[in-house]
Amino acid sequence: MNFFDLLAQLRALIILAIISTISLRYHLLDRKGVLASILIGYLIFTLGGVEHFIILLLFFGLSSIATKVRVREIGANFSEKDWIRGWRNVLANGLVPTLIIVSGYISQPQYRSLATIGYLATVGTAFADTLATEVGLFYPKKPRLITNFKEVAKGTPGAVSPYGYVGGLLASLTICVFSYALGLANLSSIPIIISASMIGMTIDSFIGAAIQAKYRCRVCGKITENSHHCNQQSERIMGVKIINTHMVNLISTAIGGGAALILFSLLMS
Ligand SMILES: [Zn+2]
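^ inputs. structure came back:
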């Protein structure tokens, strides 16, 4: 799409306005989350094209549905309103894909297909992470920490389960099926996108287990990834302070995208 095509710009804005209204109406995003997603959606729609935008929408729509189903069946996970996504969550998942689309737009045409593979792997990682968390919460037994395989409470950063991996794999397969149908991916790029998403998702768990900050609530004693619990500041017991759940997502989407580019250069050279 030509960025300077006014009619296309208008079309993007109308579609974004409709999606924003639905997101607010169904409490999928808060107000700042809507603003952040309009910015990301607009850049991906106008610089990447409608096909790239559909992939983003697929991730957002299916993640929101998965979260709604989980909340209805088993309730909140990390905090009281963890199902309403804010701007931090939107940027954590959408910033790296957007940067890849912008880089692809300003680079030479021969790098555009590479940017598309990187983009699909970052969105694939973000979607795999999200669906792994949501599906993993349905696992009937206790999940295990990826670093030492000890049983931990559900929702612990870095906890893995067979259900979680099935969820992650389903997410990246969904991205691939739609990308193929939209002409963004071909049969040789699909294994790259799936592998990169699985690598990104696994690294996400590693960083979550080993580096992410964890806190103990001073009131109820629960160990969480939130610096506040029971309306009070919690005590940090391990991890790096600035590495919160959003930072982990940001890093892992970048690693998922990077993994796709490395795999592509190894397999296609
Ligand atoms: Zn508490």
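The first helix runs from residue 6 to 25. The chain has one domain: 6-268.
thumbs up if we can close this ticket
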